Amino acid sequence: MIGPDIAGIAETLGTAADTATAVGQLAAETGLDVDAAYAVQTALVQRRLDRGERLVGLKMGLTSKAKMAQVGVDEVIWGRLTDTMRIPDGGTIDVADFIHPRVEPEVAFLLDRLPEPGEPVGDFTDAVRAVAPAIELIDSRYANFTFSLPDVIADNTSAGAFVIGPWSPVPDGLDNLGVLLEIDGRVAQVGSTAAILGDPRRALDEGIRLAGRHGVRLRSGWVFLAGAATAAVPLRAGAHVRAVVERLGTASLRSSS
Ligand code: OOG
Ligand code: MG
């Protein structure tokens, strides 16, 4: 039997992102399972690397119940981050570059010395140099932000852009810090880092394990997004967005056009 057209699906999703034009779901009709979907993601990200972008990190998705419920998919997933997705803290994003962007509050790790594949992380402060509040902009390439598990994996887990706030040394506890997402000074979402797999440190174990299954090893110097603590909120033009994480501070962005 001939398998799904990995390169063709990656091209469709890449063009959808480049032109900010939604496409229909692809996995069911092309027979894409989870493994094939990660192969599409690899090809989709390779397309970016081929035009000069650099891999700068890994992001986790659907590590909180709020996110799983919002998109109707209940498996933890991971995707790749490249340098052009990173927006400076306080920087501006043009919503016209995206299809239906949403923003969500995250916790970011700056990776340091990572265990060998198959080994537990062990001492978190060995593996992580610093932590920061962050905002992720997600933008599903599928119409109506509706997808199955293999669809969202193939689409690089809806990765669009991200902002990292100031880095701090790893605090003693990360497992129950208050999280706020504010739009134009109003609270849009409230949560806790406990929503991220009970403790965002667990997201790193999951990332190492799940990415390792596909031969991907996290690197020192990479950014790691642990996954949103709350549901995501649509990003409209002319908005000022702040993510506030207790003890870690604030990350912010503005949107234009
Ligand atoms: C998938 C990406 C999920 C998170 O933090 O949970 C994600 C989506 O919601 O479109 O980035
Ligand atoms: Mg996210």
Taken as a percent bin, the fraction of beta residues is 25-35%
Characterize the largest beta sheet: strand count, sense, and whether it forms a barrel: 8 strands, mixed
Shape estimate: globular
- Radius of gyration (Å): 17 Å
Total DSSP E strands: 13
Quaternary structure state of the chains depicted: single chain
Secondary-structure element string = HHHEHEEEEHEHEEEHEEEE
The CA-CA distance between the termini, in Å, is 48 Å
Please give the count of helices.
Answer: 7
Ligand inventory reads: 2-oxoadipic acid, magnesium ion
Percentage of residues assigned to helices: 25-40%
Low-confidence region ranges: none
Structure class: alpha+beta
Organism: Micromonospora andamanensis
Protein name: 4-oxalocrotonate decarboxylase
InterPro entries: Fumarylacetoacetase_C_sf, Hydratase-Decarb/MhpD_sf
Describe this structure in a few short sentences.
With 257 residues, this protein is an alpha+beta fold. The chain has helices at 6-19, 27-30, 34-50, 65-71, 124-127, 149-154, 200-212; strands spanning 55-61, 77-82, 86-87, 92-94, 102-111, 128-138, 159-164, 178-183, 186-192, 223-225, 233-234, 240-245, 249-256.
What are the salient characteristics of this protein?
257 residues, alpha+beta, 8-stranded mixed β-sheet, 5-stranded mixed β-sheet, 13 strands, binds 2-oxoadipic acid, binds magnesium ion
Verbal overview:
This protein has 257 residues and is α+β, with helices and mostly antiparallel strands. The chain is 25% helix and 30% strand. It has helices spanning 6-19, 27-30, 34-50, 65-71, 124-127, 149-154, 200-212, and strands at residues 55-61, 77-82, 86-87, 92-94, 102-111, 128-138, 159-164, 178-183, 186-192, 223-225, 233-234, 240-245, 249-256. Strands 1, 2, 3, 5, 6, 7, 10 and 11 form an 8-stranded mixed β-sheet that branches. The model has no long low-confidence stretch (mean pLDDT 95). The structure holds 2-oxoadipic acid and magnesium ion. 2-oxoadipic acid is lined by residues 61-62, 67, 71, 104, 136, 138, 140, 152, 157-158, 227-228. 2-oxoadipic acid binds next to α4 and β6.
